Amino acid sequence: MNWTAVSAIYKFEMARFFRTLAQSFLSPVLSTSLYFVVFGAAIGSRIDQVEGVSYGAFIVPGLIMLSVITQGISNASFGIYFPRFIGTVYELLSAPVNFLEIVLGYVGAAATKALFIGVVILATAHLFVDITIAHPLAMLLFLVLTCISFALLGFIIGIWAKNFEQLQLVPLLIITPLIFLGGSFYSISMLPPIWQTITLFNPVVYLISGFRWSFFGVSDVPVGFSLLAIAVFTGLCLAVIGWIFRTGWRLRS
Fold it and tell me: What is the pTM of this model?
């Protein structure tokens, strides 16, 4: 393993993040505050508790997942797409660096950025509601796995996209609706039976449910299913990335 190459890619991507640190820090803080004003105050005043948890606290795991997933995808997709756009990716591919080292550098940086945003949102949420984390190690595990898995998905999107419009297509039209319909701001037990069944086909449900369990000890689906879902998703992303580098799809001129 060429750790020098991994470190170089990682540091380069993180340097771009730190150049806009104020924007990266303020944006999630403002967004989280707005969500708490709209959902926590307006809707929370009409909903006392959900599954024994105050509504303001109940939406915190969903808010974190919403930001972590979108940030992981956007950072990883832009990180690999921009070198393709300006042509420097060919210098990287011709260097003595294998695909695993390239993925570790780009995905590691994107996952770190998403993890940072998740921690910022968690700290911001403490300003609005009292939060007690029932299973802190499980919470950290779900958070890290989510950051990595969706950074891998973002890496795939960055290679697939032919222009900046396509770069935003999947997150905007597919991922964001799945997050909002995946129980971010409600429990699926509140839905009619037919919609509960349909919702179970949404893979994001399992991530949010498992992450919420780590906070409050309550979940919409068994925690084992949540871990299995994220493991399968991560494995599929790794398999796709391996195929991309093996065949050169969208990487060859």
Answer: 0.92
